Amino acid sequence: MQDSLSKLGHKGTPELGPSLLGGVSLPAAVLHEAALAHNLAWMQRFAESHGARLAPHGKTTMTPALFRRQLEAGAWGITLATAPQCRAAFASGVVRVLMANQLVGQANMAIIAELLEAGADFHCVVDSEDNARELGHFFAQRDLTLKVLIELGVAGGRTGCRSVESVKALARVVDAEPGLALAGMEGYEGVVHAEDPVPAIRDYATRLVEAARCLDDEGRFAVDLPIITASGSAWYDLIAEAFDTAELRRRFTPVIRPGCYVVHDHGIYRQAQQGVLSRRPDLHAGLRPALEVFAQVQSLPEPGLAIAALGKRDIGADQLPEPLRRYREAGAVDEVLSVEGWEITRLMDQHAFIHLPDSADDVRIGDVVAFGASHPCLTFDKWRRICRVDERLDVTEVMDTAF
Amino acid sequence: MQDSLSKLGHKGTPELGPSLLGGVSLPAAVLHEAALAHNLAWMQRFAESHGARLAPHGKTTMTPALFRRQLEAGAWGITLATAPQCRAAFASGVVRVLMANQLVGQANMAIIAELLEAGADFHCVVDSEDNARELGHFFAQRDLTLKVLIELGVAGGRTGCRSVESVKALARVVDAEPGLALAGMEGYEGVVHAEDPVPAIRDYATRLVEAARCLDDEGRFAVDLPIITASGSAWYDLIAEAFDTAELRRRFTPVIRPGCYVVHDHGIYRQAQQGVLSRRPDLHAGLRPALEVFAQVQSLPEPGLAIAALGKRDIGADQLPEPLRRYREAGAVDEVLSVEGWEITRLMDQHAFIHLPDSADDVRIGDVVAFGASHPCLTFDKWRRICRVDERLDVTEVMDTAF
């Protein structure tokens, strides 16, 4: 590896060229191109097959190179969660920015005002009359118009109006603010909790569509084809189906915004995807996990125990990571060694405790292990740079993150 | 706030000047100068009172400006956990670098070789003959000498030799490698688990001292006054006491290396510090929590529930964070509003669910809440920039992190 002091301060990810099995400082976060390309095409095709626009949630990766790949694959825009995230996305060339969140705080409003002045096509979400009035005042003072979507939530859920009545009341407040333009309805089905989630989420999607129709009937929208949007990464099929009518498309712009699909995972979203595929056998070959963290065995201090140089500083720990494959350092990429029976039992800041089965008698210090994790958002945010690799495990691109 | 597109891609922390109550994009990670200065002096005084050197664990903060403060306060060096961390510390002016971890992988060895060539005074840890031979080969080939400390672990623990016999055998291997110089003994008492931890940790510290004496008696050390080092942030008093003899100081350089003390916390280390103070009533006024995350109330969607713009992307979540104080946005810093009875019940990536008591009838969207967390390491690594503030909550320094 051509290491230079100029890269100081960043986790030791590499210049273009070296392989994960030699040359790259490990641990490193890794994206497999084949799975990535598959997922990009898969979700775009899924959205289009339902007549929906795709605005992938960018907070998952905060990786501008991935935003560009998503837009090149046909995405309509990128969804973000905070004003600084929107600023980072816009700076990397994303013009249509959907902030699926409330815009709160004068400093955050100032960031968005700057983006509007620079030409961003920006939307955010409102769920309160006080917030709407404050936003209206802020943007009107600057001769700007902020496009907002009213959020419909659920009782006991997260943000969002709790009733169609409060949606309608809020729409009247937005209408009266010259600094605001009501541009659609927003929801998030991920906070619907029920014994039997599928009918509950379908019911929520129906309520969302009805609320949007209701505002449209009242002439509250300030734009043609206002947005109707929902969906995280677990129930996007139910949302896309609820939006998939010719009548809805005549009146609205349906937008789904899963985020985790782009790299998928080895945990909660793998499980959620099994749910999607069981509901939708027509989709057969589903998403593939593209994100792994490569780390090395650091110590073999006693029988049955390996310590890997992998910790909470390197990989999401909502669930304990899963050892997937093993290679010898500087070995051949097709000589995959077994991790059968390996189990992470504890994760510290910089170390993983791995229980080894009796059969694991060939393990060496320095062995390179690929780990999978649940919930990719909390792996991405550990890294300033992500290695995209080909099937030879050669690094073909080093992607900066923008957290 | 003077926001500019040049800061794109970073969480919206501010230029110097604005206040957390107006001008700074929230959420933001915040260091309170008074508590920080207190902690820096407190731990330095503690180490000196026991005749020990202080090499604070830098992986906690990975904030070069804090490394400089620690060195200015009298620290002997900075401890790190990985080769890229050592590189970042050295680049920021830290010459004496103690990597309290094994050095594994050719790319990581290359980073350290580069630091040695650039003049770093570097030590790392070994616990295996295979690793020692590989390191010896690597550094001898480059005409470099790597100073290593042998690690003594505990059965069922993390890394480290499990017996004094294996320590002695490993010392013979190190001795035979021209690329290596045995420069001390290392341990970490944080992985000692026992019903009654205090005597178990004292016993471990005694074993560590005995192993060091044993190697010294055998003439295995290649340096004068070899290092003897242990201690995390919870039991440093027991380690310092075990190292605090005139005989030990005549033969060794005792080094303690707590990390979290510099900002302390509102969780596990607050609890651990109560343990220290109960064992050591002479220390009375102990460490103070210096790290908080400021975030705003984003939504008040139903009675008894506030949603704050604070998530796992912003604050450590080993334990749920704790609301500490509340201010009005653009309000006066001395008008502190109540958060009595406020409780975070759930933390998502970008949102905190806060249960409000009936008495919380004055809450407004936009209210600024200071949150405390457990385990500061996992708050620091969420941020590229940290705001150091004075007692007026004005930002007096923006500190870059180097994760």
Automatic annotation (TrEMBL), chains A, B:
This is Amino acid deaminase. InterPro entries: Ala_racemase_N, D-amino_acid_metab_enzyme, D-ser_dehydrat-like_dom, D-ser_dehydrat-like_sf, PLP-binding_barrel. The keyword Iron-sulfur does not apply. GO terms for molecular function: lyase activity. The keyword Ribonucleoprotein does not apply. It comes from Halomonas halmophila. Belongs to the DSD1 family. Keywords: Lyase. It holds the Pfam family D-ser_dehydrat. Residues 290-390 form the D-serine dehydratase-like domain. PANTHER family: D-SERINE DEAMINASE, ZGC:162816-RELATED.
